[in-house]
Amino acid sequence: MSGSATSVGAAIAAALDRAEQLRRLGDRPARVRIMTIFGDDRSGLTVHASIRSNTPEEFRAQHGLGTRCIPWDELDARAGELVGLVDAAVGEVTLAVKNAPPVERPSRSQSDVEIDKFGSLIDQLGRTLTHSAMAVLKDNLNPGMPGDVGSEATMVAALKLAALAAFTANIGANDAQDELRIAIGDVMSKASASPELSGRPPLNS
Protein backbone atom coordinates (compact mmCIF):
# COMPACT_ATOMS: atom_id res chain seq x y z
CA MET A 1 0.00 0.00 0.00
CA SER A 2 1.27 3.46 -0.80
CA GLY A 3 0.91 6.20 1.80
CA SER A 4 -1.18 8.34 -0.58
CA ALA A 5 -3.73 5.53 -1.04
CA THR A 6 -4.18 4.76 2.66
CA SER A 7 -6.60 6.60 4.89
CA VAL A 8 -5.31 7.51 8.33
CA GLY A 9 -8.10 5.61 10.05
CA ALA A 10 -7.45 2.43 8.08
CA ALA A 11 -3.71 2.74 8.70
CA ILE A 12 -4.19 3.08 12.46
CA ALA A 13 -6.52 0.06 12.48
CA ALA A 14 -3.94 -1.98 10.55
CA ALA A 15 -1.18 -0.90 12.94
CA LEU A 16 -3.26 -1.94 15.95
CA ASP A 17 -3.95 -5.32 14.32
CA ARG A 18 -0.23 -5.78 13.74
CA ALA A 19 0.52 -4.91 17.35
CA GLU A 20 -1.95 -7.56 18.49
CA GLN A 21 -0.37 -10.14 16.15
CA LEU A 22 3.08 -9.42 17.60
CA ARG A 23 1.72 -9.60 21.16
CA ARG A 24 0.63 -13.19 20.55
CA LEU A 25 3.96 -14.36 19.15
CA GLY A 26 6.16 -14.58 22.24
CA ASP A 27 6.18 -15.07 25.99
CA ARG A 28 7.56 -11.52 26.49
CA PRO A 29 5.09 -9.50 24.42
CA ALA A 30 5.62 -5.82 23.79
CA ARG A 31 2.96 -3.34 24.78
CA VAL A 32 2.27 -1.03 21.85
CA ARG A 33 0.55 2.33 22.21
CA ILE A 34 -0.40 4.67 19.39
CA MET A 35 -0.57 8.17 20.82
CA THR A 36 -1.34 11.69 19.68
CA ILE A 37 1.27 14.17 20.90
CA PHE A 38 1.03 17.91 20.48
CA GLY A 39 3.15 20.92 21.23
CA ASP A 40 6.79 19.74 21.32
CA ASP A 41 9.48 18.39 19.02
CA ARG A 42 7.74 14.98 19.08
CA SER A 43 4.40 16.42 17.94
CA GLY A 44 2.62 13.92 15.73
CA LEU A 45 1.14 10.43 15.70
CA THR A 46 3.51 8.39 17.84
CA VAL A 47 4.04 4.64 18.12
CA HIS A 48 5.60 3.52 21.40
CA ALA A 49 6.55 -0.07 22.29
CA SER A 50 7.88 -1.42 25.57
CA ILE A 51 8.39 -4.80 27.22
CA ARG A 52 7.75 -5.29 30.92
CA SER A 53 11.16 -5.39 32.55
CA ASN A 54 12.12 -8.26 34.83
CA THR A 55 15.38 -6.62 35.85
CA PRO A 56 16.69 -3.07 36.19
CA GLU A 57 19.07 -3.79 33.32
CA GLU A 58 16.15 -4.61 31.01
CA PHE A 59 14.50 -1.36 32.06
CA ARG A 60 17.65 0.64 31.34
CA ALA A 61 18.24 -1.17 28.04
CA GLN A 62 14.89 0.05 26.70
CA HIS A 63 15.33 3.65 27.77
CA GLY A 64 14.87 5.99 24.81
CA LEU A 65 14.00 3.13 22.43
CA GLY A 66 10.81 1.81 20.87
CA THR A 67 9.41 5.14 19.70
CA ARG A 68 8.52 6.22 16.18
CA CYS A 69 6.67 9.37 15.16
CA ILE A 70 5.03 10.75 12.02
CA PRO A 71 4.64 14.55 12.21
CA TRP A 72 1.11 15.80 11.75
CA ASP A 73 1.85 17.61 8.51
CA GLU A 74 3.19 14.36 7.00
CA LEU A 75 0.54 11.97 8.32
CA ASP A 76 -1.76 11.91 5.30
CA ALA A 77 1.13 11.06 2.97
CA ARG A 78 2.87 8.59 5.33
CA ALA A 79 -0.07 6.80 6.96
CA GLY A 80 0.81 3.61 5.10
CA GLU A 81 4.10 3.44 7.07
CA LEU A 82 2.39 2.85 10.44
CA VAL A 83 2.45 -0.95 10.32
CA GLY A 84 6.16 -0.87 9.53
CA LEU A 85 6.76 1.56 12.38
CA VAL A 86 5.06 -0.85 14.78
CA ASP A 87 7.36 -3.63 13.57
CA ALA A 88 10.42 -1.40 13.96
CA ALA A 89 9.51 -0.20 17.45
CA VAL A 90 8.72 -3.70 18.73
CA GLY A 91 11.83 -5.15 17.14
CA GLU A 92 14.01 -2.48 18.73
CA VAL A 93 12.86 -3.10 22.31
CA THR A 94 12.80 -6.87 21.81
CA LEU A 95 16.46 -6.82 20.77
CA ALA A 96 17.35 -4.47 23.64
CA VAL A 97 15.79 -6.79 26.22
CA LYS A 98 17.41 -9.84 24.63
CA ASN A 99 20.84 -8.19 24.83
CA ALA A 100 20.44 -6.74 28.33
CA PRO A 101 23.29 -7.94 30.56
CA PRO A 102 22.48 -10.62 33.12
CA VAL A 103 21.92 -9.54 36.69
CA GLU A 104 24.04 -10.90 39.54
CA ARG A 105 23.03 -10.26 43.13
CA PRO A 106 25.68 -8.12 44.87
CA SER A 107 25.92 -10.47 47.87
CA ARG A 108 27.01 -13.38 45.67
CA SER A 109 30.35 -11.73 44.98
CA GLN A 110 31.21 -11.26 48.66
CA SER A 111 33.59 -13.26 50.87
CA ASP A 112 32.38 -15.56 53.65
CA VAL A 113 33.18 -12.93 56.27
CA GLU A 114 31.22 -10.32 54.36
CA ILE A 115 28.33 -12.76 53.95
CA ASP A 116 28.20 -13.19 57.74
CA LYS A 117 28.02 -9.42 58.10
CA PHE A 118 25.35 -9.38 55.39
CA GLY A 119 23.24 -11.85 57.37
CA SER A 120 23.64 -9.79 60.53
CA LEU A 121 22.60 -6.68 58.63
CA ILE A 122 19.47 -8.45 57.39
CA ASP A 123 18.55 -9.37 60.98
CA GLN A 124 19.18 -5.84 62.24
CA LEU A 125 17.17 -4.24 59.45
CA GLY A 126 14.36 -6.73 60.01
CA ARG A 127 14.12 -5.87 63.70
CA THR A 128 14.30 -2.14 63.04
CA LEU A 129 11.67 -2.18 60.31
CA THR A 130 9.37 -4.37 62.41
CA HIS A 131 9.66 -2.09 65.44
CA SER A 132 9.01 0.96 63.25
CA ALA A 133 5.94 -0.67 61.69
CA MET A 134 4.58 -1.67 65.12
CA ALA A 135 5.06 1.90 66.39
CA VAL A 136 3.21 3.37 63.41
CA LEU A 137 0.35 0.89 63.81
CA LYS A 138 0.08 1.63 67.51
CA ASP A 139 0.03 5.39 66.99
CA ASN A 140 -2.11 5.69 63.89
CA LEU A 141 -4.40 2.69 63.55
CA ASN A 142 -8.04 3.63 63.83
CA PRO A 143 -9.52 1.87 66.88
CA GLY A 144 -12.39 0.66 64.73
CA MET A 145 -10.08 -0.78 62.07
CA PRO A 146 -9.43 -4.55 62.25
CA GLY A 147 -5.86 -5.52 63.07
CA ASP A 148 -5.52 -7.58 59.91
CA VAL A 149 -6.11 -4.44 57.83
CA GLY A 150 -3.08 -2.89 59.54
CA SER A 151 -1.09 -6.02 58.74
CA GLU A 152 -2.14 -5.80 55.10
CA ALA A 153 -1.10 -2.15 54.95
CA THR A 154 2.26 -3.13 56.46
CA MET A 155 2.69 -5.84 53.82
CA VAL A 156 1.97 -3.46 50.92
CA ALA A 157 4.32 -0.80 52.33
CA ALA A 158 7.05 -3.38 52.88
CA LEU A 159 6.70 -4.70 49.33
CA LYS A 160 6.99 -1.18 47.92
CA LEU A 161 10.15 -0.67 49.94
CA ALA A 162 11.42 -4.08 48.79
CA ALA A 163 10.77 -3.16 45.14
CA LEU A 164 12.71 0.09 45.51
CA ALA A 165 15.58 -1.68 47.29
CA ALA A 166 15.68 -4.38 44.60
CA PHE A 167 15.88 -1.78 41.87
CA THR A 168 18.70 0.15 43.52
CA ALA A 169 20.58 -3.11 44.18
CA ASN A 170 20.11 -4.19 40.54
CA ILE A 171 18.16 -7.28 41.60
CA GLY A 172 15.61 -8.78 39.22
CA ALA A 173 11.98 -9.61 39.85
CA ASN A 174 12.63 -13.38 39.88
CA ASP A 175 15.18 -13.12 42.71
CA ALA A 176 12.88 -10.80 44.66
CA GLN A 177 9.96 -13.20 44.25
CA ASP A 178 12.16 -16.10 45.38
CA GLU A 179 13.03 -14.20 48.56
CA LEU A 180 9.33 -13.53 49.20
CA ARG A 181 8.50 -17.22 48.78
CA ILE A 182 11.32 -18.16 51.17
CA ALA A 183 10.11 -15.61 53.73
CA ILE A 184 6.52 -16.84 53.53
CA GLY A 185 7.73 -20.42 53.89
CA ASP A 186 9.73 -19.43 56.97
CA VAL A 187 6.64 -17.87 58.57
CA MET A 188 4.58 -20.97 57.80
CA SER A 189 7.25 -23.19 59.36
CA LYS A 190 7.31 -21.08 62.52
CA ALA A 191 3.52 -21.17 62.70
CA SER A 192 3.52 -24.96 62.35
CA ALA A 193 6.18 -25.40 65.04
CA SER A 194 4.57 -23.02 67.58
CA PRO A 195 0.96 -23.75 68.62
CA GLU A 196 0.56 -20.18 69.89
CA LEU A 197 1.33 -18.88 66.39
CA SER A 198 -0.86 -21.36 64.53
CA GLY A 199 -3.63 -18.82 64.03
CA ARG A 200 -2.25 -15.48 62.90
CA PRO A 201 1.31 -14.74 64.02
CA PRO A 202 1.82 -11.17 65.20
CA LEU A 203 4.07 -8.89 63.16
CA ASN A 204 6.84 -9.10 65.77
CA SER A 205 6.94 -12.90 65.91
TrEMBL record:
Q: Which UniProt keywords apply?
A: Plasmid
Please identify the protein, giving its name as recorded.
Uncharacterized protein
Native source organism of the sequence? Xanthobacter dioxanivorans
List the top taxonomic levels of the source: Bacteria, Pseudomonadati, Pseudomonadota, Alphaproteobacteria, Hyphomicrobiales
